Amino acid sequence: QVRLVESGGGLVQAGGSLRLSCAASGRTFSSYAMGWLRQSPGKAREFVATISWNSGSTYYADSVKGRFTISRDNAKNTVYLQMNSLKPEDTAIYYCAAARQWPADYWGQGNQVTVSS
What we know:
Number of strands: 11
Low-confidence stretches: none
Shape: globular
Mean pLDDT: 95
Strand content: over 45%
Radius of gyration: 13 Å
Order of helices and strands: EEEEEEEEEEE
């Protein structure tokens, strides 16, 4: 069992930055790929970024490439999403997820990110 708790969301102006964190419980964190997904009102949940168990590979949605960076610290059981040059269209609830193989096995509770224009 893995419990995921997100933090770091909030309100920011367009062009600003936020860093999301996702702390995982359990001793098997390092065996999971981790990811961030987001969902805006009226839209389907979409992948934002994923990272492999050893940080050897990452994936980014085209809409965030060059602006967002996913990273993880297995010693701290934490995954991060650094979001720079934020745009109003980045406004969404952001979810942390863990997977041995996608789709996700575990989800966080979600964290609101609002970008004002």
